[in-house]
Structures are given as structure tokens and as C-alpha cells.
Design goal:
This is ATP-dependent DNA helicase. 45% of the residues lie in helices and 2% in strands. With 201 residues, the protein is mostly helical. A two-stranded antiparallel ribbon has the order 1-2.
């Protein structure tokens, strides 16, 4: 009937206006969220975003008259600034397309590790200053070479500790730090985590 039809139309109009309101609220929340994120950006991140926006505008303004003209994918941005980009991941960049970062062409004169061209000397070893040997900072403490030496450093006299020489579980229990040494072990592990370790394949 006409009355039912009018009720259905009124309900449809109401749903339509509710959807418009929801969409408007969502867009407003999204704008606020994006502004909050952009507020935490560094100057470098902001400059990279400005450059990407400029490229996106240029791509949008290109006139493509026929179907055979070059297809520009806005989702796939060029990787312009590679330095420090490991800390600023951008989903619009196809990093897999830029997988070739060069060959390991240089060879260290001291440790014969292969290096990239332009890599600073001494990144793989201590270079000339220490005769090509990797040297740990003194702040890390004494370096031990054997398990027995490590146990002596932790516990003093090894003969007091009952253990079977080849028992892995027993060695783990022996090397568990005593309560009074736990703090120094934690500090040592924090130092290790805070240091930058460089390796060459």
C-alpha cells in the first residue's frame, strides 16, 4: 500500500542521513588522528612526506591521452632518500624493487672482510690502530676464553662447585649469577644492548 511505501521511504531517508553523519564523524576523527601523527614527525620525515606529496601531485597532473601512454602507479612511490630510511618505513614505496644496494667489492686490508664501496675504514675490525683485531671496550669487563675461566670469574674457587664436566644443565646452573652479582650482570647486559655492533659477512 501507499502508506507502507511511504514508511519504507522515510526509514531509508533516515538510514541515509545516519550514514552521512557517521561518515562525517569518521572523517573528522581520521583528520584528528593524522594531525596527531604528523605532529610527532621529525623535520626529515616531514620533508620526505612533502616530497612524496609533490610527486603524487605531479603524477596526477600528467596528461595521458591514450591507453598506451605510461601508467603511473601512485601507490608505488620512488625511493628517493635511502639514508636513514630504515627508521622511516613508508608503505607506498616498493622496497623490493630496490633490493640491489651494490656488491661487496672492497676488501679490508687487515681482516679480509668484504665491504661495500664507500664504507668507512675500520667498520669490520679495529683497522690499523690495533693491528686488525676486534677490541672490546674496557668498560665491558674482562673477556674469558674458556668455561672454567668463566666459572672462576663468577664463583672464585671452582673446586667447591660439584658438577659433572659435560653436563650442560649443570653448567647452566653453575653460571646462574648469585644474588649479589645479579645487578652487575644486568648492568653488563644493558651495556651490551646499548652498543652498536658491526659485522661483515
Amino acid at each position: 500500500t501507499d502508506e507502507q511505501r511511504e514508511e519504507r521511504r522515510a526509514a531509508a531517508r533516515q538510514r541515509y542521513h545516519e550514514l552521512l553523519g557517521d561518515a562525517s564523524t569518521h572523517l573528522s576523527q581520521e583528520r584528528d588522528r593524522i594531525q596527531e601523527i604528523r605532529g610527532t614527525w621529525s623535520d626529515e620525515q616531514r620533508a620526505a612526506q612533502v616530497e612524496q606529496d609533490r610527486l603524487r601531485r605531479n603524477v596526477n597532473q600528467l596528461s595521458t591521452s591514450d591507453e598506451e601512454s605510461t601508467v603511473y602507479d601512485i601507490e608505488e612511490q620512488p625511493w628517493l632518500n635511502k639514508e636513514g630510511s630504515g627508521f622511516m618505513y613508508n608503505v607506498a614505496i616498493n622496497y623490493a624493487a630496490y633490493g640491489n644496494i651494490g656488491a661487496l667489492e672492497e676488501v679490508c686490508a687487515h681482516c679480509q672482510a668484504r665491504e661495500w664501496k664507500g664504507e668507512p675504514n675500520g667498520m669490520c675490525c679495529a683497522s690499523e690502530e690495533r693491528g686488525g683485531q676486534v677490541v672490546l671496550p674496557e668498560s665491558l669487563g674482562r673477556v674469558v676464553s674458556t668455561l672454567d675461566e668463566l666459572i672462576r670469574c663468577v664463583y672464585g674457587d671452582i673446586s667447591r662447585i660439584p658438577h659433572q664436566p659435560n653436563s650442560w644443565a649443570c653448567e647452566r646452573a653453575i653460571l646462574t649469577p648469585k644474588n649479589d652479582q645479579a645487578q652487575s650482570m644486568k648492568a653488563f647486559s644493558r651495556k651490551l644492548r646499548g652498543m652498536k655492533w658491526c659485522t661483515s659477512p
